[in-house]
Design a protein that fits this description.
6-stranded parallel beta sheet; about 40% helix; binds nicotinamide-adenine-dinucleotide; 2 domains; Rossmann fold; alpha/beta; 3-stranded parallel beta sheet; 11 strands; about 290 residues
């Protein structure tokens, strides 16, 4: 029987509804600033979609466009200005950054209470102690989707594919939050020798590698819960014409035949991640109120 879908839309709507109510309670609209030092069309598109999402819940958004040839010092001094500006409650650094600029160092210059992405070491560090007030958005989205689908994680063989600082590692840490009710978590990555060995015994499988088709149907355990974080653009032929399609890291149709629950791509984790960004933006504003 085909797996049921864990759709991102209704979960994202619930998070946005709460963000709206929290803004009402704050009595002041948060203001998020996107810092862009690039001509990259993808980054500009991402900034536009951030602006649209912010508007939906009543968050002000401004894009600060810097010279695409900005240096590390230029970006650091711009961030310092934002940190000192009380009218700005949150900031997000848009990538790519100019050649020679270390994006992580720029992100670390953001005041922890304005770090809407939850990537500052102060916020990441708190995750280790179970303080999830400002977590990285995608990891938070993954955990929220499992929670929403009432997946009992206690002692479950759970495999996370991907160990990036922004997705894989914080997901592992968040899954291990409970002393008594945590799943047994295995983290696989590019150096994992036999990926199928791990996935085939995963009762919960979270895939965040950025490789279309990485997880095939035969790699999925019967009845597994699958959260597909991957976002990949692939070229496909539809009625003789080449088209771009967004797919995850999991071969959806084949995996759906074996899983019990699965997230679609698009329409899954991505929608919840965006909602979590809004949630974090409200949390930052609350801290500064
Ligand atoms: P990344 O490139 O920083 O990390 C990729 C991770 O996957 C690494 O840990 C790497 O070791 C692992 N990996 C790569 N190839 C592998 C393989 N063949 N076998 C096993 N492990 C492998 O990427 P990221 O920023 O963590 O993002 C991962 C994916 O998630 C990308 O497709 C990205 O677009 C997507 N993403 C989605 C959302 C969302 O909201 N849905 C948010 C962030 C990232």
């Amino acid at each position: 029987m085909a797996a049921e879908l864990i759709e991102g839309g209704p979960i994202a709507d619930g998070i946005k509804e709460k963000a709206r109510a929290d803004i009402q309670a704050l009595g002041r609209a948060p203001k998020l600033v996107g810092v862009l030092a690039s001509d990259n069309p993808g980054a500009k598109y991402y900034a536009k979609s951030q602006e649209k999402a912010c508007k939906e819940v009543g968050i002000e958004y401004a894009l600060h466009e810097l010279d695409p040839n900005s240096s590390q010092a230029d970006l650091a001094s711009h961030i310092a200005g934002i940190n000192a500006d009380d009218s700005i409650t949150g900031v997000i650094l848009l990538v790519p950054v100019p050649d020679g600029v270390n994006a992580r160092q720029v992100q670390q210059a953001i005041a922890p209470d304005k770090d809407v992405e939850g990537v500052h070491p102060a916020n990441i560090g708190k995750l280790f102690y179970g303080d999830f007030s400002l977590p990285p958005c995608t990891a938070h989205a993954v955990v929220a989707m499992l929670e929403h689908a009432n997946v009992d994680l206690k002692g479950k063989e759970t495999v996370v594919i991907g160990h990036s600082e922004i997705v894989g590692k914080p997901t592992v840490v968040m899954l291990l939050q409970s002393l008594m009710e945590s799943p047994t978590v295995t983290c696989c990555h590019i150096a994992t020798a036999d990926l199928a060995f791990h996935t085939q015994r995963a009762e919960v499988l979270i895939v965040a590698a950025g490789k279309a088709g990485l997880v095939t149907g035969d790699m999925v355990k019967e009845g597994a819960v699958i959260i597909d974080v991957g976002i990949n653009r692939v070229r496909v032929e539809v009625e003789g014409k080449k088209k771009t399609k967004i797919v995850g890291d999991v071969e959806f149709e084949a995996a759906r035949e074996k899983a019990s629950l699965i997230t679609p791509v698009p329409g899954g984790v991505g929608l919840v991640t965006t909602a979590m960004l809004l949630r974090n933006t409200v949390e930052c504003a609350r801290r500064q109120a």
